[in-house]
Amino acid sequence: MWLSVESIIDWRIIRCGPDMEFTLLFLAIAVVMLAAWRGPRPLALGLYAAVLIACVATYLHHATDTLKLSF
Amino acid sequence: MTQTRAVTLNALSLYAVALVLAAAFAAQFFLHELPCPLCLLQRILFATLAVGPILNIRFGPRPSHYAMSLLSAVAGAVASTRQVLLHILPGDAGYGSALLGYHYYSWALIGFVAAIVLLAATLLFDRQFADDGATLPADGGAFAQIAVWLVIALTAANVATTLLECGFGACADNPVVYELLKSA
Predict the structure, then answer these.
(1) What is the per-residue pLDDT across B93-116, written as a single tens digit (0 to 9) for each?
(2) What ipTM was predicted for this assembly?
(3) Hey, are the CB atoms on B41 and A62 less than 8 Å from each other?
């Protein structure tokens, strides 16, 4: 059976999804901690900034659902 | 507050972060409650709170290190507020079980707000940023070193448990099984 264009697009959206995002974020913050404890200070600051931006991006990705507020 | 006391205070804050991460593990393993994606994000942001104190212990207290923890605490407060709002409707049972009347994300919000207040209060003490001539113990001494390695170990343990829970794909919205153990 031939795949429709929509199916291909859906498949790509799924494949571009944030697989293992939380595992990678935990790994990244562990690396930042090690850099802060043993590495040069600028490296730790740079890695920290990158991880925080990744956390905000992950939050925004998961904040796309409609909030069910009571007013 | 002297530099030495500030370093001790930062080590204590690392033990507080370790306690939060350990409590989350306790709920996960003893109550069999798997963390949802937003719960994992809040754990990660608690872990990022520890980077500022680690830098303070190693390089001495600096306002920029406290600012890093403040940014993490604000991001964590936003994420936990989001989850509180998701379950704010009357009749909503909330996600997971409650501890002393509050769900974990409510405790997380309280924890992040407390961190913001404590960090701001600590920044009021200017003397910690001045070189007072005191010789600081290498890497903060044994008390601080244990705190640092404890937080790093708990974060590394979260890498393993999150991989077990989510597997190699995206985490389930409402996880009930460990993905890697299910397919094993």
Answers:
(1) 778 788 888 889 999 999 999 999
(2) 0.91
(3) yes
